[in-house]
Automatic annotation (TrEMBL), chain B:
<feature type="transmembrane region" description="Helical">
    <location>
        <begin position="804"/>
        <end position="828"/>
    </location>
</feature>
<feature type="transmembrane region" description="Helical">
    <location>
        <begin position="427"/>
        <end position="450"/>
    </location>
</feature>
<dbReference type="GO" id="GO:0005886">
    <property type="term" value="C:plasma membrane"/>
</dbReference>
<feature type="transmembrane region" description="Helical">
    <location>
        <begin position="259"/>
        <end position="286"/>
    </location>
</feature>
<keyword id="KW-0812">Transmembrane</keyword>
<feature type="domain" description="ABC3 transporter permease C-terminal">
    <location>
        <begin position="266"/>
        <end position="380"/>
    </location>
</feature>
<dbReference type="Pfam" id="PF02687">
    <property type="entry name" value="FtsX"/>
</dbReference>
<keyword id="KW-1003">Cell membrane</keyword>
<feature type="domain" description="ABC3 transporter permease C-terminal">
    <location>
        <begin position="725"/>
        <end position="825"/>
    </location>
</feature>
<feature type="transmembrane region" description="Helical">
    <location>
        <begin position="762"/>
        <end position="792"/>
    </location>
</feature>
<feature type="transmembrane region" description="Helical">
    <location>
        <begin position="721"/>
        <end position="741"/>
    </location>
</feature>
<protein>
    <submittedName>
        <fullName>FtsX-like permease family protein</fullName>
    </submittedName>
</protein>
<dbReference type="InterPro" id="IPR003838">
    <property type="entry name" value="ABC3_permease_C"/>
</dbReference>
<feature type="transmembrane region" description="Helical">
    <location>
        <begin position="471"/>
        <end position="496"/>
    </location>
</feature>
<feature type="transmembrane region" description="Helical">
    <location>
        <begin position="307"/>
        <end position="340"/>
    </location>
</feature>
<feature type="transmembrane region" description="Helical">
    <location>
        <begin position="398"/>
        <end position="421"/>
    </location>
</feature>
<feature type="transmembrane region" description="Helical">
    <location>
        <begin position="360"/>
        <end position="377"/>
    </location>
</feature>
């Protein structure tokens, strides 16, 4: 969460995508996320009063994009939810909600995807589908994915793994090319 | 900042959320509706008075003199201006049955000429031409009287009565008197006859207090201002008073305006309570939006964008609330118009008046802004990390300084607007300060109660009583309802408590203290040659009790140090109309000179004056100032050589101005007397003295005070209506607070049930908590109300204050019951919900 600028470090510094996150104030951090980062949460965190399409359009609108809704519609189609675009979060299954969240994170073409236990609230097969989608989005957009997970098999799909135990980084592993 | 985007996001986020704003909307709607309704009725009356102005005034314009008729020159001038002219004389007197039976009453006599009435018509019961009615029957002139007088004297049409030394026949009841409101505050029922019929009554002797009025119908397109200026410059310093149809009833208009403004100020207290509800509702709503706000921030929304989105939502709902309030505030008087028009003692022209509605809307929007900025600022500061914290993440306690400055500016603006629009800047300022002070006291009390409850919950006494402890802990812990409940309920109860305490204490003065210190009667218009016999008879009848007399004239202060008085001292009551003035060689008994010195008993120099010290200070007078008083059309200029204390509260003979005897030598005058007597001696005393001296008017102090008491009761009733809106709004806020706490109470109940508590135990705990909180609000209100009432009784009425315990107990009980009702209304869900479902949902 320090990396996403959702939390401020009390000591030391945090650098992300070349920016010193500790030097930015709350609003600057918000703009940084808007322009360069797509965040995916375990609990989806869709805005309940907005449709799937509107949820995906929000970061684009905040960035001032005129084609926010067209782009959002394309992004929903990419995650296979074109038919559900006018549904509210409460009318969607958990897997569908997470797919909307993925579309929302991907829509502004961020340099970095930050996913915090994205399958934690989903059953096994839905979770696997979501992970496939997440990795495919990363590849399609040429972005970096930082994945926080308790699942070793998911971690194993990443290029590099950092293990955090009791607040300490234990080891690093590079995936075989 | 992109308002377009903010508006789109605000609208989307508002979907399905309108229901969360029920309390918000109700609070604003009620507050605005009350103010709009008061303003609409006030304007309707003003418009009614203005439309009927000529009829009420009895002509296009009126020139009035006190104590005298117009001189030949004045009369010639008035005649030259008028198309038609009517001369009337107006005074109060005693009427009595003239058939050997007891029965007398104070009356307000109008002596008219043949031209009366110039505008409108007098309707009589039984119907008959006015001229026939005045002609009388059986050789006696005719008299018309208000129906009330027939009841008072116990007579019917055709009865014989006497005014002064003249007998009359009561020819008819006055069903409608077109100019009835122009005369102001009369002491008794109206009687009308002709001036000619009064010629032998002995009631218009020199020195008697009467008003003469010359009503004019003017040519169309007469420039009223120019004509007034001409009249005043042609006859300067003669005591001539001008009134025209543009403001035909200055006293009544002033009263309606002031009463309306006063009720608007009381309505503002309601809006302040509504504001507490608005703040609580906005805070509760924004709490439900924390996740959305944090999500938006995660997606890149800045703090300003969040403020704008939710500010727009609140603004939109404020406009809806204000709109509903305006519809209600206009609709209710419009709906009740036929009913109100019949019952109001003044003409009212109901309609759609934009000005009072705009005023109410402005108050509503200002209140919404004032009470929303703080919670909105809190939302602005919500951090994206809130997505990963429990909802009660403690943010900063105090907002940033620009927010505090905005809140302060809005509060000052609110009071400034009230001061400007009410026309009573001082009262508005003190009301604003009073509301702020009471809210502060209530806030401190609420925070104190929270700490006390938290301490008691942890104390030994609560051990073994888990429901007590739970209740106290809920009052003392985070999310406690103490602050909104005590603030909302407390302010309304404080207003009510203040009114009740003042009313009770004032009644105590009238019923208990006043009879001990006040005289039984004032006797007016005693001619100097009647005085020795008057004193002899009065002394014989009142058992040697106190009798005080003084010569009495009336005069208008026209100049201070040779400058127009109004220019020097503004609108002070001493300068408004004519005041009593007397002369004395030595200071009256008990006089305390506070500055300067009394004149020598045989003073023979230029006129000197002793002025009431308190009023002198208010007028900004100092020793050596020259006061010009117009008495009987002549100017008397005297130098102020002393100030003295005057206690108007003892109801004795008190004059603002006393001059040396030589100053008024030769001026025709009568005397005033106060006669003290036991209650049983009162009736024979009045009968004998007014029987022996028909020209003398006796005014019973008890009856006069009863009228003041009635006026106060009406004021208290009006204020109570205002306070009831405050209370109703407070109750809505209570319901809002209870609804907001429902989720928390349901969770607590689920845990207690899991631990083995039965439903009746949980219900008892909830009831106890609500009642305790409501009673605490009542207690604080009683204390604050008593302090306010004490201040009013001590500093305004110069009386003693004794707390009225009965009403105080009722206020506390009322507070407890109100909050109990609101609390129990939301007890169903905590009692009925199954614990497993609730606890699982929180996992």
């Amino acid at each position: 969460m320090l990396m996403a600028g959702l939390e401020q470090a009390t000591t030391g510094s945090v650098h992300c995508l070349g920016a010193d996150m500790t030097a930015l104030d709350e609003d600057a951090l918000a703009r940084f996320r808007r322009d360069r980062m797509g965040v995916v949460f375990q609990s989806f965190h869709l805005i309940p009063t907005m449709t799937a399409l509107e949820n995906v359009a929000v970061p684009l609108e905040l960035a001032g994009r005129d084609d926010a809704f067209e782009r959002a519609a394309e992004e929903l189609e990419r995650v296979g939810l074109a038919a559900r675009r006018d549904h509210y979060p409460a009318q969607l299954s958990g897997g569908e909600q997470q797919r909307v969240a993925l579309a929302r994170a991907a829509a502004p073409r961020p340099a970095l995807f930050l996913a915090d236990e994205p399958t934690g609230n989903l059953d096994g097969s839905t979770g696997a589908a979501i992970m496939d989608l997440l990795f495919s989005l990363r590849d399609a957009h040429g972005a970096t994915l930082v994945l926080v997970t308790h699942a070793p098999e998911l971690a194993a799909r990443c290029d590099r793994t950092l293990s955090l135990t009791d607040g300490q980084l234990q080891r690093t592993a590079e995936a075989a090319e | 900042m992109r308002p377009g985007l903010a508006w789109r996001l605000a609208r989307r986020d508002l979907r399905g959320a309108i229901g969360s704003f029920r309390v918000f909307l109700l609070c604003l709607t009620l507050g605005v509706a009350a103010i709009a309704a008061v303003g609409t009725v006030r304007t309707a009356i003003s418009e009614g008075l203005s439309r009927e102005a000529s009829r009420i005034l009895g002509g296009d314009a009126e020139i009035r003199f006190t104590y005298r008729f117009a001189t030949d020159a004045e009369r010639a001038f008035i005649e030259a201006q008028s198309v038609r002219l009517s001369e009337i004389v107006d005074f109060r007197s005693m009427i009595r049955r003239d058939d050997g039976t007891e029965g007398r009453s104070l009356v307000q006599v109008k002596g008219v000429d043949d031209a009366y009435p110039l505008v409108g018509a007098v309707t009589l019961d039984p119907p008959m031409p006015l001229a026939d009615a005045f002609a009388g029957s059986d050789g006696l002139p005719g008299l018309l009287a208000a129906p009330e007088l027939f009841d008072r004297l116990g007579v019917d049409v055709g009865a014989q009565v006497a005014l002064g030394t003249q007998s009359f026949v009561l020819m008819a009841r006055i069903a409608e008197e077109p100019d009835s409101m122009g005369g102001g505050f009369g002491f008794g029922p109206r009687v009308i006859t002709t001036r000619a019929n009064l010629a032998d009554s002995g009631l218009l002797a020199p020195g008697t207090l009467f008003d003469s009025a010359y009503r004019m119908v003017l040519p169309p397109q007469t420039d009223l201002d120019a004509l007034r200026d001409t009249a005043e410059s042609r006859f300067p310093d003669t005591g001539l008073r001008w009134t025209d149809r543009r403001n035909g009833t200055p006293g009544l208009s002033r009263f309606v305006d002031r009463m309306g403004a006063f009720l608007v100020l009381v309505g503002l207290a309601g809006l302040a309570v509504g504001g507490i509800g608005v703040a609580a509702a906005v805070r509760t709503y924004l709490d439900t939006r924390i996740e959305t706000i944090a999500t938006l921030k995660t997606l890149g929304a800045t703090g300003s964008m969040i403020f704008l989105i939710y500010g727009m939502q609140i603004g939109l709902l404020a406009v809806i609330g204000v709109g509903l309030g305006l519809i209600l505030g206009y609709g209710l008087p419009a709906l009740l118009a036929p009913f109100l028009a019949d019952r109001l003692p003044v003409p009212a022209l109901f309609g759609l008046y934009p000005v009072p509605l705009a005023e109410a809307a402005l108050y509503g929007l200002l209140a919404a802004a004032l009470f929303s900025v703080w919670p909105l600022a809190r939302a602005r500061d919500t951090r994206a990390a809130a997505l990963f914290r429990d909802l009660v993440a403690p943010g900063r306690v105090w907002p940033r300084w620009p927010v505090l400055a905005t809140v302060a500016a809005l509060a000052v603006g609110f009071v400034a607007v009230a001061a400007l629009l009410s026309g009573l800047p001082r009262l508005a300022f003190w009301t604003g300060l009073g509301i702020a002070l009471v809210l502060l006291i209530l806030l401190v009390a609420a925070l104190g109660l929270r700490r006390l409850a938290a301490r008691l919950a942890r104390g030994r006494a609560a051990r073994g009583a888990p429901l007590w402890r739970q209740g106290l802990a809920a009052l003392g812990g985070a999310g406690s309802e103490a602050v909104p409940v005590i603030l909302s309920l407390g302010l309304g109860l404080t207003v009510l408590s203040t009114i009740v305490q003042i009313d009770r204490n004032f009644r105590q003065i009238i019923d208990g203290q006043l009879p001990e210190i006040a005289p039984a009667f004032f006797f007016l218009d005693i001619q100097p040659d009647q005085m020795p016999e008057f004193l002899d008879r009065a002394t014989a009848l009142n058992g040697g009790d106190r009798i005080e007399t003084a010569p009495m004239l009336r005069g208008v202060i026209t100049r201070i140090n040779d400058r127009p008085a109004a220019e020097v001292a503004g609108e002070h009551w001493v300068l408004r109309g004519d005041r009593g003035i007397t002369y004395a060689a030595t200071p009256p008994t008990g006089t305390e000179i506070t500055a300067g010195a009394w004149w020598d008993a045989d003073h023979d120099g230029p006129p000197q004056m002793s002025f009431a010290a308190e009023e002198a200070e208010e007028l900004g007078l100092s020793l050596g100032d020259r006061i010009t008083v117009n008495v009987l059309g002549r100017d008397l200029t005297a130098e102020v050589t002393s100030f003295r204390t005057v206690d108007f509260g003892d109801m004795g003979i008190n004059f603002v101005m006393i001059v040396d005897p030589k100053a008024l030598a030769g001026a025709p005058h009568t005397a005033i007397a106060t006669v003290y007597a036991d209650a049983e001696a009162e009736a024979p005393l009045l009968r004998d003295l007014t029987g022996r001296f028909p020209n003398v008017t006796g005014i019973g102090v008890r009856a006069a005070m009863d009228r003041v008491g009635d006026a106060l009761a009406a004021l208290a009733a009006g204020t109570s209506w205002g306070a009831s809106v405050t209370l109703l709004t407070g109750f809505v806020v209570l319901i809002g607070a209870a609804a907001a706490g429902e989720r928390r109470r349901t969770y607590e109940a689920a845990i207690l049930k899991t631990l083995g508590a039965q439903r009746r135990q949980i219900l008892a705990g909830l009831a106890l908590r609500s009642a305790l909180l409501g009673a605490a609000a009542g207690l604080v209100a009683v204390l604050a109300g008593s302090i306010a009432a004490w201040a009013v009784m001590t500093f305004v009425m110069d009386g003693d204050f004794v707390p009225a315990l009965g009403p105080a107990g009722l206020v506390i009980l009322g507070g407890a019951l109100a909050n109990l009702a609101a609390g129990l209304g939301f007890a169903w869900r905590p009692l009925s919900a199954r614990p497993a479902r609730i606890l699982r949902a929180r996992d």
